[in-house]
Amino acid sequence: MPKFSTYDGTELAYHVRGEGEPLVCLAGGPMRASAYLGDLGGLTAHRRLVLLDPRGAGESAEPADPGTYRADRQVDDVEALRTHLGLERLDLLGHSAGATLAVLYAAAHPERLTSLTLVTGGTRPAGIEATAEDRREAADLRKDEPWYAESRPALDEMLAGRDIDEVWDLVLPFMYGRWDATARAHAASDDDQTNFAAADAFYADGALGDTAATRAALTAVTAPVLVLAGEYDAGPRPARAAELAALFPHGRLAVQHGAGHYPWVDDPAAFARTVAAFLTPPPDFGTGAGGRTR
Predict the structure, then answer these.
(1) Claim: this prediction has a pTM higher than 0.85
(2) Which secondary-structure segment (H or E) carries 277?
(3) Average pLDDT estimate for 215-221
(4) 3-class SS at 206?
(5) With 0-12 CB in 10 A as exposed, 13-18 as middle and 19+ as buried, what is 243?
(6) Tens of pLDDT, residues 21-51
(7) Closest listed residue to residue 197, CA positions, set 78, 80, 29
(8) What share of the chain is helix, strand, coil (3-state, %, to 5)?
(9) Element holding 241 (H helix, E strand)
(10) Residue 193 main-chain phi, psi, to 5 deg
(11) Could you give the dihedral angle defined by the CA atoms of residues 141, 254, 207 and 163, in that order, rounded to the nearest 10 degrees?
């Protein structure tokens, strides 16, 4: 498996799947190994996925300085990977907390993007927060599910301040569009793939930067941006995702029907079709603002 040394000498690993033009993929969690992304619903049929294991997770080494787990400090890891891959510009995809990192990278290096895909996340650096009402609204959409009667009280307790670890197993079904065997297996891999100590540091005070400065910086992103939300997802709800998309000069929103926080798990074909179509520019797309030429 390929590895490279990032800005502080930490050795980071990445996994390559598929053929074609590279699509650099940032995992969420935060601080979860990229294995849970799989092949992103078969997106490997269209692009070569470069799946980065965050520092301290998966096959990547732990840094000497735990402070570098902060989201803002990991922006330089993405830039180091771009340089290592020899790309002048890159197609970048981030999921959940990985989308947060992708937004911070876009704000810092807008000229390095060919495209940006933000999957069920990325709103927080722009000051767009999921609220308790958002979570209740999303939960109400699932009231006909067989697990709802047991899971809804647990969600309400969590929103009222109960320790999330005490109720998480009951809340998990809300994260998926279909709580079937595939979703259960996907959810079960979380504990072994996540560096929970590092996850606490990812969102340390100040790690998301200055909201106003980030929002202003995103107006300089001339590359096309896809913000993909799940119909049932609470973080962010589609309306919040639309707010994020509107910050980019060439931002667009896609809402995947019947999907939760992991849309490629809920409907692999729909997810891959949407992202692949976005990543394939029409013949007359051009090479000016928002163009796709490397």
Answers:
(1) yes
(2) helix 268-279
(3) 97
(4) coil
(5) middle
(6) 999 999 999 999 999 999 999 999 999 999 9
(7) 29
(8) 45, 15, 40
(9) helix 238-246
(10) -105, -10
(11) 10
Residue 173 is encoded by which pair of tokens?
Answer: 């079904």
Establish how many alpha carbons lie within 13 A of residue 122's alpha carbon, considering only the half-sphere containing its beta carbon: 37
With tokens 């997810």, the residue in question is 271
C-alpha–C-alpha distance, residues 160 and 156, integer Å = 6
Average pLDDT, the chain: 94
Backbone torsion region of residue 223, taken as left when φ is above 0, otherwise alpha when ψ lies between -120 and 50, otherwise beta: beta
The neighbouring-strand residues paired with 50 are: 16, 24
pLDDT class of 291 with cuts at 50, 70, 90: very low
User: Would you say 12 and 52 are in contact if contact means Cβ atoms under 8 Å apart?
Assistant: yes
The CB density around residue 258, as the number of other CB atoms within 10 Å, is: 13
Amino acid at 39: D
**CB count in 10 Å sphere of residue 191:** 8
pLDDT at residue 288 above 70?
no
Cα–Cα distance for residue pair 35/15, rounded to 1 Å: 9
The gap between the terminal CA atoms of the chain, to the nearest Å, is 26
Residue 88 near residue 292 (C-beta atoms within 8 A)? no
- DSSP letter at 65 equals -
| Tokens (6 digits) for 38 | 């799989």
Identify the CA nearest to 23 among candidates 102, 92, 78. Answer: 92
SS3 118: strand
Query: Which of 248, 211, 250, 251 has the alpha carbon at shortest distance from 228?
Result: 251
